[in-house]
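From the thread on structure requests for the teaching lab: each student submitted one protein with a one-line request. Submission from student K.M.:

"Model NTF2 domain-containing protein from Drosophila willistoni, tokens only."
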Amino acid sequence: MAWNKIQPKGRIVDIGDGFAPIEVNYVGCKTFSKCSSYGKEVPGMNWHEFRVLHRSQLKFLADPKKLILDGFFNAIDSEEFYPVAYESGPQVDTFLARNCKTALDKLFAKGLIITLSTNAQLEIFVMLNVSKPITAHINPPVEIGKAVASLMENLEQQDGVTGLLNLSNFSSHSRFEKIVVSLANVSTLRQVCQNVQHDSDRFHMVNGFIFANNGISNLLPLNLFADTDYALLDLSGNQIKSHRRLCSDLERFRAKELRLANNPIIKSSSYPDCMKPLAKNFKLVDGVAIDKLGATYTPLNYEIDLECDGVRIDWSNKKDLATFEDSKHWHACKIPDSGHTLTKDMLYDCFFITINHSLSEFFPCYYKFENGEHSFIVRNCYDQICHLVQVCNLELKIPQLVVGEDGVNLDRSLPYYLRMNVSQFKPSSHLDPYERIGKCLDACFNVQDRVLKLDMFRCTPGLENVMVCLSSPPILAKVLDMASRKFMNQCTELKLSKNKITRLDGLKSLRLMVHLKSLDLSHNWIHDLEAIRPLEVLHLKSLTIHGNPVCQNYRMPSEYVAAVREIFVGLTILDHVELRDDVMPTPQKNFLCDVRGYELCEFFLKTFLTGYESRATRECLRKFYTDKSMFTLTCEIQRKDYLKRTRAYATHSSNIKRLADFSRAICAYHVGTDEIISLFMKLPGVRHDFVSLQTDVMHWDAKSAIIYVNGLFEDKSLTTQKARAPFYLAFSRQFVLKVDATGLGIGKNASRWKITNEHLDILVPSPTQLKNAFKMPSAMADPPGAVATQEKIKIELHKSLLFGETTGLRQPWCTKILEMESYDMKNALKRYLSMEEKNEVPLDAYT
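Reply posted by the TA:
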């Protein structure tokens, strides 16, 4: 209804900045309140006064003015409305507005009542036509145009992107001191976009838009910039809630990056899946590739505020934990660490040492370090949380290496606290550990090779936001149970290296993999073979455990092999080395060395030592030396029964202490290929007991290697050949090898190694060595034809593998083409190229 009371005759509203003051005249004006129509009154272009009666209801809120204005803009929807000269009072707020008939109609349609975001309802008093406009009065649309023009003249550069129109916090522009300009009002946003578009002189230079912190929820006016490629659209800090409206409004807007941080939409259950319709419009969302947004999404960055969400549990209120026993929500662990002394991996290692492995599986998710605190969230593990609180007293023990008898100190600890029920579980956007593990297992299985590769499983793509620690026996058992049921009739090889595994009990499910023959457990934390004894039921043919501390428990390779074969009776390959009854040494596994060093060791020693045995074949050892190679020999045997038979070695010994004439010391060092081979020709022939040999790769880095070998050989000199009993000597030999050339071979991947330094030490054999000497036949005892056949098969196999690497063909096709050309690689490659040119190679021939 209209309300006429005695009003003051008028007032003067001073705008400043060179604008004429607005002379408000209340004489003859009607005041409207709680009514739906202004009757016969004509608003026209005149100024109208608005009074909001709040009666101090909002004085305790942070920003009452913003609440009231947001209520106005919600009520008028998308109509043009610019409050001028806003004044806040203890009971009533007042402002003027003009040229707003459609907005007035919507306010009257709501009975001149506005509803705030707090659900409070406020009464509005409207006095129509309190002043007539003149040209010198402030004109909000004109001021908006001038503000936009000034920003267009000063395009900005951010993160290397130039030509950015910065409209962030637009309402705080210096021209709007007496005007309320809100881009949350669609009409105002449209006005701004039109001003930008109509600035033809500068619009072509705009390469992106920053609309941050403007309260925007409706982006429809951005269609004015459609079908053009921009670098950036920054919408962070607004009120975008509806993904349907967002995708609809930006259907034709294109930019390299879209920024949505601090919008309600990113806390919705549909985010980030709801962004898929915009995949063609934007490459990045908040710096993350839009197609990988789901993989990098974390509720700790978007949904959960760990400062206030949930209920805090620490040592002072441990008894309150019981109220969360049946909770299915997320719970947060907060570990203060102001110095950031722990890495993510170190923190998880400490937790998995602390938890009780007989309780529920423990899957920390969405790790984050911020403001001096480590944070992650877990769910469905109340019994573990109860153990951490009641037994461990919310203290994380940190192992430290110290000098002393024990070697490990657990005195250092970090106290931490929990926040229970920080968020509900949202199946559409939050990860489920078991579902994610299942998908990763599928991705890790190579169907063609029938190999399940779980090396460093915690680093598998797809597990970035969940820690799947296979060092935890129940988690390892669960993962392998899932794998066994997925690939029970397919998997023949399982790789579990570098997973910090300490024991393998409870793995009966692996028996479901009926064709499993090979298992790789290298570079784990296995200290005793008893830890892997449960695997003896698997009937493995190949086992790899090098790189584990257990390998250092055995002094001799033969002891190590015997201990492993006692458990795995049918084993034929151990640590990538074939277990033969005749042969070469098994390198001692120094777990600081790359396994490729062992391959070099085996190949080099077999070739070198067999070539060294006879004077007739020593000439072939020239290929291992250069003109700068150095060789030394020592023989310090003092036993009388050995002196005569070791004279040939003692003569060339480099023991300087025993030289009467030090000028002869230089003669003890043999430099260059000719000098070294000449010395070898003066030394007796030998026959190595290959079973007695112990080898170690002391160093390997793809450019150099240090190889050590010791063992027993039979002296084959003329003196000993006349004796009835064989004469045995012990020896040790050290080689320093360096790469002499690279890029060799057909595939350009081969390297040539040369000996740069070598030392041979002749020793008296120990009683054990003499007792076990030549107990098993040497590989050299095989018939020449058998050895030749074996070597031919190996060469053909290597050529077939190399041919496959070069061409990408499957092995049956490699063998077929090589056999056509009698394993001549050059001709085989020519045949392949000819067949490829004639389309004679089907697609399924390739891997």
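TA comment: The chain has 23 helices and 40 strands. Residues 264 and 453 are 41 Å apart (CA to CA).
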